[in-house]
Each structure stands twice: as structure tokens, then as C-alpha cells.
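Researcher: I need the complex structure. Ligand is zinc ion. Inputs:
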Amino acid sequence: MDWTDEAIARLRALWDEGHSTAEIGRRMSVSKNAVVGKAHRLNLPARPSPIRRDAAATARAAAPRRVTGPTLPPLPASLEEAPAPEVVLPPPPVVPVRAVQPPAPRPIPAPLRAVAASRSRNLTCCWPIGEPGTKSFRFCDADAASGKPYCGEHAQLAYVKVRDRRDEAAA
Ligand SMILES: [Zn+2]
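Model: Output:
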């Protein structure tokens, strides 16, 4: 390509009109490479080809996304990292917990429950009668003296016994 002043002027004109290098080449009957090379030597402003313009537009469109990008990616990343340990961890604890739990609920023995109930209500004597743990074992169940867990008779026994022990301890 012989770049005459006229040709150079035409290239500048077409270049300024914003035609692509391929279009300029077609109009001037030169190869696109010749247009690009001459434009480069003339220091013409960068003329993005249609493809490059799309790329630039894509980059510009992507730019806003990249601005928010730095904040967004870490969130999903941290979220993905967080659930991972949780998914792995639960199985181990669940097995031992289930193994330990079954023996835990121990029903309170009926006699003890009766004691607790009568003591809380303070209505009947809680004096134990018989051998604890045997079928004959029971509580007095007589009306308790007010303010005491035993009936009058058993309350006397209880406090006499305490007094006796004190006397023995003192002697
Ligand atoms: Zn009693």
C-alpha cells in the first residue's frame, strides 16, 4: 500500500467517522491489516473494532458487577464454608447423645413420689412403716399434725428419738 497524502487524509477522515478498520480497508481497497498498521504509525486514536467494541461494552457492563463483586463473592464463599463443618459435625454428636440419653429418664419410685407429694401438701404422716423396698413398706398416712410431716404419734416418736440421740451424744 502506497500511503499518499490523499490516502492518509482519507484514512484519517474515515477513521474520524468511526468506521471499523475492516470497513475503512474495504472503502480504500486495502487490507484491514494495512489500515491498522498505518493508523498505528499515524498515532491515530485507538479505533476499537466491532468485536473489541463489544468486548469493551461487555467489560463496561461487567464493570459495575465487578464493583459489587468483591463484596458478593465472599458472602457465598463464607456461606459455603460455614455449612460444610456443620454438615460434617452433627453426625458424631448425635450418636453419643442418643446412646447416653435412653438411660437418663429414670422414673421416680412410687414411694418417693408419695413422700414428696405428702410432704409438699403436708397432709398425711410420712412416717415409714416396714422395710423400705419390700411390699409391706408403706407410710403411716395418718393426718399429719399441722406444720409437721408426721401425725401426732409419730412426731412424738421422731422428736423423742432426736432427743435420745442428743442425750447419748452428751453422755
Ligand atoms: Zn404417723
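Model: Summary of the prediction. The chain has two domains: 5-67, 110-170.
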